[in-house]
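Quick note —
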Amino acid sequence: MRIITGEAKGRRLVAPDTPETRPATDRVREAVFSMVGSAVADASVLDLYAGSGSYGLEALSRGAASVTFVENGHRALAALRENIAAVGLGGTVVTSKVRDFLARSGTRFDVVFVDPPWAMPSAELADDLVALDPLLGSHAEVILSRRHKDPVPVSPETWRVATDRRYGDTRIVRYEKEAGVT
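Predicted structure written out below.
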């Protein structure tokens, strides 16, 4: 696993050795960033269920203004911190359960990566998406990674599915928040 392009292109990332963490492959991340395009440049990015931090670190390499990584697994946090140090582009690590972070954060985000454990029930994930909605700026994008056979969770009414694609056993859903709705 490595940074695909940008300022930190080619830097290797370590993956946490846990059954719950399944780092996004280079192929999947490349496809995701092709979808997101220039939206990540100068953006405030949130990486939920960050794991190794591969999405957020790729965003920093591609010019994101800031990235907040939210993770609560001890081994995942160790790998995340090691990767942030190796890449050298910064980022803020928040040690927290995602729902707790969403309930207390007042920051607005432009791009959000949501890569929960695949065993997470869709209803629980839908609750996270509802809790995330007030933190999104106008025109925000949310990229969700799921197991390909899992249903797309119900999302807030102000979101629309812009992309829904399968890459091997991974399903990527890209949502866009309607303009002017904050």
